[in-house]
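Hey Z.,

So I finally got round to the zinc ion thing we talked about over coffee. Here's the setup:
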Amino acid sequence: MLRILFLGTGGSLPTRNRNPSSIMINIEGELLLFDCGEGTQQQMMRAKTGMKALTSVFITHFHADHMLGVPGLIQTMSFLGRTEPLKIYGPQDVKEFVNVFIDLGYYKPRFEVEVIELSPGDIVKRNGYCIQAIGTIHSVPSIGYALTEDPRRGRFDREKAIALGVPPGPLFSKLHNNVDVEINGQLIRSADVVGQKRAGRKIVYTGDTRPCESILQASMNADVLIHDSTLARDKEEWAKESKHSTAFEAANLAKEANVIRLVLTHISSRYTDDTSSLLKEAQEIFKNVIVAEDLMEIDVPLKDK
Ligand SMILES: [Zn+2]
Ligand SMILES: [Zn+2]
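And the result:
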Protein backbone atom coordinates (compact mmCIF):
# COMPACT_ATOMS: atom_id res chain seq x y z
CA MET A 1 0.00 0.00 0.00
CA LEU A 2 1.13 3.49 -0.79
CA ARG A 3 -1.48 6.09 0.16
CA ILE A 4 -1.34 9.86 0.57
CA LEU A 5 -3.71 11.53 3.02
CA PHE A 6 -3.94 15.30 2.95
CA LEU A 7 -4.47 16.44 6.54
CA GLY A 8 -3.87 20.14 5.98
CA THR A 9 -3.84 21.96 2.64
CA GLY A 10 -4.08 25.64 3.57
CA GLY A 11 -1.37 28.21 2.92
CA SER A 12 -0.04 30.26 5.81
CA LEU A 13 -3.41 30.74 7.54
CA PRO A 14 -5.95 28.10 8.52
CA THR A 15 -9.42 28.67 7.07
CA ARG A 16 -12.76 27.06 7.86
CA ASN A 17 -12.09 24.44 5.16
CA ARG A 18 -8.35 24.01 5.35
CA ASN A 19 -5.95 23.17 8.15
CA PRO A 20 -2.37 24.36 7.82
CA SER A 21 0.07 22.05 6.05
CA SER A 22 0.33 18.37 6.83
CA ILE A 23 0.46 15.32 4.60
CA MET A 24 0.49 11.73 5.77
CA ILE A 25 1.92 8.88 3.74
CA ASN A 26 0.94 5.33 4.59
CA ILE A 27 3.57 2.96 3.21
CA GLU A 28 2.73 -0.65 3.95
CA GLY A 29 1.06 0.34 7.22
CA GLU A 30 3.85 2.61 8.45
CA LEU A 31 2.73 6.24 8.84
CA LEU A 32 4.96 9.19 7.95
CA LEU A 33 4.00 12.83 8.44
CA PHE A 34 5.29 15.57 6.19
CA ASP A 35 4.85 18.87 7.99
CA CYS A 36 2.67 19.13 11.01
CA GLY A 37 0.69 22.37 11.15
CA GLU A 38 -1.60 23.30 14.00
CA GLY A 39 -4.53 20.88 14.40
CA THR A 40 -2.82 17.98 12.63
CA GLN A 41 -3.61 15.55 15.46
CA GLN A 42 -7.33 16.32 15.22
CA GLN A 43 -7.23 15.80 11.47
CA MET A 44 -5.61 12.42 12.16
CA MET A 45 -8.52 11.63 14.48
CA ARG A 46 -11.06 12.68 11.86
CA ALA A 47 -9.33 10.46 9.31
CA LYS A 48 -9.03 7.64 11.90
CA THR A 49 -5.37 7.07 11.14
CA GLY A 50 -4.38 6.27 14.73
CA MET A 51 -1.02 7.43 16.08
CA LYS A 52 0.71 4.19 16.96
CA ALA A 53 2.00 3.46 13.48
CA LEU A 54 3.50 6.95 13.12
CA THR A 55 7.27 6.54 13.10
CA SER A 56 8.58 9.80 11.66
CA VAL A 57 7.79 13.45 11.07
CA PHE A 58 9.52 15.31 8.22
CA ILE A 59 9.35 19.10 8.56
CA THR A 60 10.07 21.23 5.49
CA HIS A 61 10.78 24.50 7.37
CA PHE A 62 10.06 26.32 10.56
CA HIS A 63 7.21 28.61 9.68
CA ALA A 64 4.33 28.26 12.13
CA ASP A 65 1.91 26.78 9.60
CA HIS A 66 4.23 23.78 9.11
CA MET A 67 5.25 22.96 12.66
CA LEU A 68 2.85 24.19 15.36
CA GLY A 69 1.15 20.80 15.50
CA VAL A 70 4.28 19.04 16.72
CA PRO A 71 4.14 19.86 20.47
CA GLY A 72 0.46 18.95 20.78
CA LEU A 73 0.97 15.71 18.88
CA ILE A 74 3.92 14.73 21.08
CA GLN A 75 2.02 15.48 24.27
CA THR A 76 -1.08 13.57 23.13
CA MET A 77 0.97 10.51 22.16
CA SER A 78 2.74 10.64 25.52
CA PHE A 79 -0.59 10.93 27.32
CA LEU A 80 -1.87 7.90 25.38
CA GLY A 81 1.07 5.86 26.65
CA ARG A 82 3.37 5.77 23.64
CA THR A 83 6.72 4.17 24.37
CA GLU A 84 8.10 3.73 20.84
CA PRO A 85 10.59 6.39 19.77
CA LEU A 86 9.60 9.08 17.26
CA LYS A 87 12.00 10.50 14.70
CA ILE A 88 11.69 14.13 13.64
CA TYR A 89 13.64 15.31 10.57
CA GLY A 90 14.07 18.82 9.29
CA PRO A 91 16.44 21.40 7.82
CA GLN A 92 19.06 23.31 9.80
CA ASP A 93 18.09 24.31 13.37
CA VAL A 94 15.60 21.44 13.63
CA LYS A 95 17.20 20.35 16.92
CA GLU A 96 16.86 23.77 18.47
CA PHE A 97 13.20 24.13 17.48
CA VAL A 98 12.12 20.61 18.40
CA ASN A 99 13.85 20.85 21.77
CA VAL A 100 11.75 23.92 22.49
CA PHE A 101 8.65 21.85 21.68
CA ILE A 102 9.76 19.02 23.92
CA ASP A 103 10.42 21.36 26.86
CA LEU A 104 7.23 23.33 26.39
CA GLY A 105 5.19 23.64 29.61
CA TYR A 106 5.58 21.06 32.38
CA TYR A 107 5.14 18.06 30.09
CA LYS A 108 7.95 15.66 29.34
CA PRO A 109 7.30 13.02 26.71
CA ARG A 110 7.56 9.46 28.03
CA PHE A 111 9.08 8.27 24.79
CA GLU A 112 12.28 9.16 23.02
CA VAL A 113 12.17 11.88 20.37
CA GLU A 114 15.14 11.57 18.06
CA VAL A 115 15.85 14.72 16.03
CA ILE A 116 17.81 14.50 12.78
CA GLU A 117 19.02 17.47 10.73
CA LEU A 118 19.05 16.98 6.94
CA SER A 119 20.76 18.93 4.17
CA PRO A 120 19.72 18.87 0.51
CA GLY A 121 20.83 15.57 -1.01
CA ASP A 122 20.82 13.64 2.27
CA ILE A 123 19.07 10.30 2.05
CA VAL A 124 17.21 8.52 4.83
CA LYS A 125 17.36 4.81 4.01
CA ARG A 126 14.49 2.69 5.28
CA ASN A 127 13.34 -0.85 4.82
CA GLY A 128 11.88 -0.91 1.29
CA TYR A 129 12.08 2.81 0.56
CA CYS A 130 14.18 5.92 1.03
CA ILE A 131 13.52 9.60 1.56
CA GLN A 132 15.74 12.22 0.02
CA ALA A 133 15.95 15.85 1.17
CA ILE A 134 15.61 18.29 -1.75
CA GLY A 135 16.93 21.83 -1.84
CA THR A 136 14.06 24.35 -2.07
CA ILE A 137 13.89 28.15 -2.26
CA HIS A 138 11.87 29.82 0.47
CA SER A 139 12.27 32.85 2.74
CA VAL A 140 13.84 30.72 5.51
CA PRO A 141 16.01 27.54 5.43
CA SER A 142 13.83 24.85 3.85
CA ILE A 143 13.89 21.44 2.19
CA GLY A 144 11.41 19.29 0.32
CA TYR A 145 11.24 15.50 0.33
CA ALA A 146 11.16 12.73 -2.27
CA LEU A 147 9.99 9.32 -1.11
CA THR A 148 11.10 6.54 -3.45
CA GLU A 149 10.37 2.86 -3.08
CA ASP A 150 13.16 0.38 -3.71
CA PRO A 151 13.05 -1.11 -7.22
CA ARG A 152 10.74 -4.09 -7.52
CA ARG A 153 11.89 -7.44 -8.90
CA GLY A 154 11.48 -7.94 -12.63
CA ARG A 155 8.56 -9.64 -14.34
CA PHE A 156 8.65 -13.46 -14.37
CA ASP A 157 8.40 -14.99 -17.86
CA ARG A 158 6.23 -18.01 -17.15
CA GLU A 159 6.08 -19.25 -20.73
CA LYS A 160 9.83 -19.13 -21.12
CA ALA A 161 10.32 -20.99 -17.83
CA ILE A 162 7.95 -23.77 -18.98
CA ALA A 163 9.70 -23.93 -22.37
CA LEU A 164 13.00 -24.41 -20.52
CA GLY A 165 11.48 -27.39 -18.72
CA VAL A 166 10.75 -25.83 -15.34
CA PRO A 167 7.54 -27.28 -13.86
CA PRO A 168 5.13 -24.67 -12.45
CA GLY A 169 5.42 -24.62 -8.64
CA PRO A 170 8.02 -23.78 -6.02
CA LEU A 171 10.88 -23.57 -8.57
CA PHE A 172 9.07 -20.65 -10.21
CA SER A 173 9.20 -18.70 -7.00
CA LYS A 174 12.89 -19.60 -6.50
CA LEU A 175 13.76 -18.34 -9.94
CA HIS A 176 11.70 -15.19 -9.42
CA ASN A 177 13.62 -14.62 -6.19
CA ASN A 178 16.96 -14.56 -7.94
CA VAL A 179 17.89 -18.20 -7.26
CA ASP A 180 19.24 -20.37 -10.11
CA VAL A 181 17.83 -23.90 -10.26
CA GLU A 182 18.82 -27.19 -11.86
CA ILE A 183 16.44 -29.31 -13.95
CA ASN A 184 17.69 -32.76 -15.02
CA GLY A 185 21.29 -31.63 -14.76
CA GLN A 186 20.70 -28.42 -16.69
CA LEU A 187 21.22 -25.07 -15.00
CA ILE A 188 18.39 -22.57 -15.42
CA ARG A 189 19.49 -19.10 -14.45
CA SER A 190 17.11 -16.71 -12.77
CA ALA A 191 18.28 -13.97 -15.15
CA ASP A 192 17.04 -16.08 -18.10
CA VAL A 193 13.41 -15.89 -16.98
CA VAL A 194 13.18 -12.71 -14.90
CA GLY A 195 13.15 -9.29 -16.55
CA GLN A 196 14.83 -6.05 -15.52
CA LYS A 197 14.02 -4.66 -12.10
CA ARG A 198 11.08 -2.26 -12.17
CA ALA A 199 11.27 1.23 -10.71
CA GLY A 200 9.55 1.82 -7.38
CA ARG A 201 6.92 4.50 -6.96
CA LYS A 202 7.98 8.06 -6.17
CA ILE A 203 6.17 10.86 -4.33
CA VAL A 204 7.64 14.37 -4.09
CA TYR A 205 6.47 17.00 -1.61
CA THR A 206 7.97 20.44 -2.06
CA GLY A 207 6.82 22.34 1.03
CA ASP A 208 6.90 26.12 0.50
CA THR A 209 9.12 27.09 -2.38
CA ARG A 210 9.71 28.87 -5.66
CA PRO A 211 9.94 26.41 -8.57
CA CYS A 212 13.58 25.36 -8.89
CA GLU A 213 16.03 23.05 -10.62
CA SER A 214 16.54 20.74 -7.63
CA ILE A 215 12.79 20.07 -7.39
CA LEU A 216 12.65 19.50 -11.14
CA GLN A 217 15.47 16.96 -10.97
CA ALA A 218 14.04 15.18 -7.92
CA SER A 219 10.59 15.05 -9.54
CA MET A 220 11.62 13.40 -12.82
CA ASN A 221 9.01 10.73 -13.64
CA ALA A 222 7.47 10.92 -10.16
CA ASP A 223 4.13 9.22 -9.65
CA VAL A 224 2.82 12.15 -7.62
CA LEU A 225 4.21 15.66 -7.26
CA ILE A 226 2.68 17.68 -4.42
CA HIS A 227 3.73 21.24 -5.17
CA ASP A 228 3.36 24.61 -3.46
CA SER A 229 0.54 26.40 -5.27
CA THR A 230 -0.19 29.26 -2.94
CA LEU A 231 -1.36 31.72 -5.56
CA ALA A 232 -2.79 32.12 -9.05
CA ARG A 233 -0.80 33.46 -11.97
CA ASP A 234 -2.11 37.02 -11.62
CA LYS A 235 -0.31 37.15 -8.24
CA GLU A 236 3.03 35.95 -9.61
CA GLU A 237 4.91 39.00 -8.37
CA TRP A 238 3.68 38.35 -4.86
CA ALA A 239 4.58 34.67 -5.21
CA LYS A 240 8.12 35.67 -6.16
CA GLU A 241 8.40 38.08 -3.29
CA SER A 242 7.02 35.70 -0.67
CA LYS A 243 8.96 32.75 -2.14
CA HIS A 244 5.96 30.66 -3.07
CA SER A 245 4.71 29.26 -6.40
CA THR A 246 1.69 29.83 -8.58
CA ALA A 247 -0.46 26.99 -9.88
CA PHE A 248 0.80 27.84 -13.36
CA GLU A 249 4.44 27.47 -12.27
CA ALA A 250 3.72 24.18 -10.49
CA ALA A 251 2.07 22.85 -13.67
CA ASN A 252 5.01 23.87 -15.82
CA LEU A 253 7.41 22.05 -13.55
CA ALA A 254 5.17 18.96 -13.47
CA LYS A 255 5.12 18.89 -17.26
CA GLU A 256 8.85 19.31 -17.57
CA ALA A 257 9.50 16.61 -14.97
CA ASN A 258 7.11 14.25 -16.77
CA VAL A 259 5.29 13.35 -13.55
CA ILE A 260 2.15 11.23 -13.67
CA ARG A 261 0.02 13.33 -11.35
CA LEU A 262 0.24 16.83 -9.88
CA VAL A 263 -1.47 17.88 -6.66
CA LEU A 264 -1.67 21.59 -5.85
CA THR A 265 -1.48 22.42 -2.15
CA HIS A 266 -0.73 25.23 0.36
CA ILE A 267 -3.72 27.12 -1.02
CA SER A 268 -3.93 30.75 0.05
CA SER A 269 -6.92 31.81 2.14
CA ARG A 270 -7.88 34.20 -0.64
CA TYR A 271 -9.21 31.14 -2.56
CA THR A 272 -11.34 29.89 0.34
CA ASP A 273 -14.53 29.94 -1.65
CA ASP A 274 -13.22 29.16 -5.10
CA THR A 275 -10.08 27.38 -6.27
CA SER A 276 -11.21 27.13 -9.90
CA SER A 277 -8.74 29.78 -11.10
CA LEU A 278 -5.83 27.71 -9.75
CA LEU A 279 -7.10 24.50 -11.33
CA LYS A 280 -7.87 26.13 -14.66
CA GLU A 281 -4.48 27.74 -15.17
CA ALA A 282 -2.71 24.52 -14.19
CA GLN A 283 -4.88 22.34 -16.46
CA GLU A 284 -3.97 24.42 -19.46
CA ILE A 285 -0.40 23.22 -19.03
CA PHE A 286 -0.76 19.84 -17.35
CA LYS A 287 -3.93 17.75 -17.57
CA ASN A 288 -3.61 15.33 -14.65
CA VAL A 289 -3.84 17.88 -11.85
CA ILE A 290 -6.08 18.34 -8.84
CA VAL A 291 -6.33 20.88 -6.03
CA ALA A 292 -5.80 19.15 -2.68
CA GLU A 293 -8.62 19.25 -0.14
CA ASP A 294 -8.37 18.44 3.54
CA LEU A 295 -8.90 14.72 4.25
CA MET A 296 -8.54 13.82 0.56
CA GLU A 297 -6.82 10.48 -0.04
CA ILE A 298 -4.84 9.30 -3.04
CA ASP A 299 -3.76 5.72 -3.61
CA VAL A 300 -0.61 5.52 -5.70
CA PRO A 301 -0.94 2.49 -8.00
CA LEU A 302 1.95 0.35 -9.20
CA LYS A 303 3.09 1.61 -12.61
CA ASP A 304 3.91 -1.72 -14.13
CA LYS A 305 2.11 -4.73 -12.67
ZN1 LIG B 1 3.53 27.72 4.63
ZN1 LIG C 1 6.73 29.05 4.71
